[in-house]
Amino acid sequence: MTTETHVKDIKPGLKNLNVIFIVLETGEGRVTKTKDGHEVRTCKVADKTGSISISVWDEVGGLIQTGDIIRLTKGYASVFKGCLTLYTGRGGELLKIGEFCMVYSEVPNFSEPNPEYSNMDQMKNKTVLSDQGNILNNNSAGNDTTNGNGVNSQGSGSSTTPLQGGRAGSGVGSRANNPGGTTVNGKETRRSTKR
Amino acid sequence: MSIQCVGIVTSLTNGLSEREANDAITANVCKGPQQHEEVCLGLFALLLTEPPQAQRCYRDLTLVNRDGMNVILIKINQILMEKFLKLQDVCRTQLVWLVRELVKSGVIGADGVLMTLMKQIAGGDITSKNLWLAENVLDILLDQREWVLKSGMLIAMSVYTYLRLIVDHGTPALLVLRQKEVDLCIGLLREKFMECFIIGRDLVRLLQIVARIPEMELLWKDLLHNPQALSPQFTGLLQLLTARTSRKFLACRLTPDMETKLLFMTSRVRFGQQKRYQDWFQRQYLSTAESQSLRCDLIRYICGVVHPSNEVLSSDILPRWAIIGWLLTTCTSNVAASNAKLALFYDWLFFSPEKDSIMNIEPAILVMHHSMKPHPAITATLLDFMCRIIPHFFPPLEGQVRQGVFNSLTFIMEKRVLAHLAPLFDNPKLDRELRSMLRERFAEFCSSPSPPTEGRDEGESVSLEMDNHVLLDKEDGCYDNTEAAFSDDEEEVNNKGNKKREFRFHPIKEAVIEEPADITPYVDQLDDTMKEKVLQLQKGSDTEAHCEVMQEIVDLVLEEDFDSEQMSTLASCLAELFKGHFRGDVLPDDITEESLEESVCKPVCLVFRNLCQMQEDNSGFSVLLEMLAELYQKQPKIGYHLLYYLRASKAAMGKMSLYESFAQATALGDLHTCLMMDMKACQEDDIRLLCYLTPSIYTEFPDETLRSGELLNMIVAVIDSTQLQELMCHVMIGNLVMFRKDSVLNILIQSLEWETFEQYSAWQLFLAHSIPLETIIPILQHLKYKEHPEALSCLLLQLRREKPSGEMVKMVLSRPCHPEDQFTTSILRHWAAKHDDVLGEHIKALLIKNNNMPRKRQSLRSSSSKLAQLTLEQILEHMDNLRLNLSNTKNSFFTQTPILQALQHVQASCDEAHKMSYYDCEYEEPSSKPPKSRRKAPASSPRSRKGAVTPVSNEEESASSSASEEEDSKPKAPKRKRKGSSAVASDSD
Description:
Chain B: Residues 34-440 form the Integrator complex subunit 3 N-terminal domain. The complex is a heterodimer. Chain A is mostly beta strands.
């Protein structure tokens, strides 16, 4: 596996990010709906180097609880409304790998509004990000096929994202149909996306 | 790993008959240890996941394994400790089934696995999964009783576990289960008592909690009166209580997950960063009513098991006492709270420095010590508990418990956990009764010699014959009340409640017959001349004569050859002899010049008078100060008596500053501390005197008083409305200044924590001053809806009298929008009616300023913890609320030019994204303007609520609008505009 990026090293425009963080605030109560019906939550997450906001799409967002330790794979960072924000990229995923036992630092919050980003934001709205189709207010039809979790939106109802299919998602719940042998061998967290 | 093993097993056996399969597996196992392990784990995994094959797999396992199932036992333990919570139901069922089979087969080591399984049963959890596990393990224990009886540790662990679980299973639905649990425990306790004995003192703790159950009651009878019936080696309860509980047992009632999390908190989380971890732990384990019983387990675990290394202890890692403090303060039931306190002190009761560890008793003393400042009520309730547990824990063993607690305290001082206990036991933050109880019980640990009679204790309340009018507070009545409320650990009872009882109502007073003071231990140490004078003081009964003698004593002290080593002894004598002076009220009922002068003619006052008459550079001056300082040690009330003297006596006119010299001469050594202690003492003894002293204290010592929220709280906590009104008059007349611009805000913010009446009083006093409201406006950031109604209502009434300033408007708009919080709307509405032009300009300025700022609402919204920071949304949301509120009136606030301009500015500049996401806010405003402009909005809102609301003040605007955006944005005279828009509006409709 590739190495993990620390929150402090996340910069706008970086792609293919692997980050391990603990969830401090879930977007509960602040669920936004996009035009085409996706739920978007903004969670505050942190590692020992600082905190950042991550934008989580659809059901997965409802499964995340504060205190969850999550590994993000293939994430990317961009600026949304002047704030550095983390997203799940195409083919990426959010995987709960533990809970509670992680030291974090809430400051600095790298998603504090940063005037420097404002210009970039506007620029990106038009160009860079639209090809990833993950900006909230993007309403061009061509992008409907992907959402911020990097999963095909058509399939998102039935396809499995790791956190789907049962709270706690420490892997096992979501694998109700898997051959149960996996539950005991200590490698559960690696295998959940693929069936 | 297991998957591979399953693969190996299935490939070995695929398509074969049972016999052939068996042979194939056996053959494979023989190839070597790796193959052996693979086959075992493969069968194990199959057994867990495929119930239909389980029987066969288990049989194969027993046939082929060559290590007494060791590989399997290790694997089971590993799963139990690391992943039990994640197991699916099927696997859980199978795992429990397997453990039962292992027990049935009498596999060596099965007892260990069973104990690990028992550990998975969570305390304080009556969800069906947990009950299922408790019941299944219980069934194994009951069914395999003969086997159980062979393992001493298993017996003890089962008893400890189920005695504890019984507590959770008290609801009617669970009584059948509970009965089975009781049967198991009673059976094991009666048959194998000495095996259970190894648990140690916590066995008694658990038995006490379930003592009401009939079978347990019978057991208790034997424990107390017939210990031999349980075991010939058992000599009685004391034997058990003096045995330290092994950590194994304290740890066994926490699931591995709880243990991991607690250990993480005490080893990795930094002090100050614990809030979220506590919340998460609370959410998972302590949020239900039945989970309250878990607190005891956690506290016992922290005291007895979590013993951090010195390295951790000296670091900034979250200390144990802080976790205990959290567990105590978040306790929601009284029963759980008193059990939790007992759990905290349990190792104190029979503490022996040889057998017990300082680490077990340290959390209790530290949580009391550290809570004194932030949560005095916690310290008070714990100290109170510590006092009361001595006689109440078990009356026949009172002596031993006292010794245990004393041993603990001594050991704590020896080990320098705390160097002195006096600051803890004799702290002005504790109420009077508690302090006197502490003095009574722990005289040895209150370093200063037992100070003044607080009246309660007959032994102490001796006085002089001469003073027949000594009044003694009859407090015992009040005291009983406190006692009744003891088990409540709520602050109200211990702090506020008590305060009220104590001070709001003057206790009934009643004359008592006093016995002569006993100064024999001291008087012989004085030299002859002095001794003679002191004895004269003791004999006489005439105040004037006393004063004369006192003057002679002062003169003796001032003589050059006075041996200053006698000072302390002399002070002890005087303090004892003048006890009577310090009881009862100082201030005369009718305050006249004469009565005041008379009240300062007591013998003690002679020392004060001499001090006043002396020049500060005189050598006698410092001698007198020294004398007073010594007296102060023995009799702290002398401090406020001096203040009174300096205020009331004509002789002391203008000499208030002498008090500062006095304060510096005392052991306290500084004016602020001394003044606060004395005012506190005064507050406790005599509220009228407190009010009488207040003006001069504030005038004379502004630096100490004006910044002290503590002092103000002392005053407002005890005054009644008459006294409040008097103080307000003092303020208005100019006799008293209680607030200053630079510190008033701070004090008012502190006051938010106070009781309602205290807060109102503080505000009244503040309002009596003429400090501009601007000074305290920033307090608005601290005022939370529903939490601070007192301050909000006071502030609201004040704001309405003001003409809005830019800062005020900004602060008001900075309040978070809450659907029920009408504060902002109320004041805006008022201003919109009275000062529409000013308000309009301010809002315009704010809107434009915020609109020009980078858009940052996304993150601001997410960090709700931050103090109010004004965002555009907020302004707009508040404006919308105002608009809705004004919609039925004829108010034309929203048609003013500045407002329209500002809204246009906002609308024009907000980008697409902004419009999308914050639709509601953005377009609410323009909606109060002509509907047409709404229709022109680039994208129409999915919600059409605004459409419905739009007919704002119809008469004027119903009417709309060629007033398109372009037009609107051009400045126009308001009047003209209004007309214009209404005209066109009717067209368009």
